[in-house]
Amino acid sequence: MISAPPTLMHEFDVPGSTVQWLTTGFMLTNGIMIPITAFLIETFTTRQPFLYAMGIFAE
């Protein structure tokens, strides 16, 4: 993420403070999703979450 802020600022035409908030949100989301993913991997087989996700996002 260290090289992303200048690119994000240029591409989306936003100030540095907004990019810092986006980076913080990204890191917080990762911090929440990694333990949830570990729990799901230990609880279910690989096939069950895959089929569930395909059912949710399929058209």
UniProtKB/TrEMBL annotation:
SUPFAM superfamilies with a match to the protein in the record: MFS general substrate transporter
Bilayer-spanning residue ranges: 20-41
InterPro entries: MFS_trans_sf
Protein name in the entry: Major Facilitator Superfamily protein
This protein's UniProt keywords: Membrane, Transmembrane, Transmembrane helix
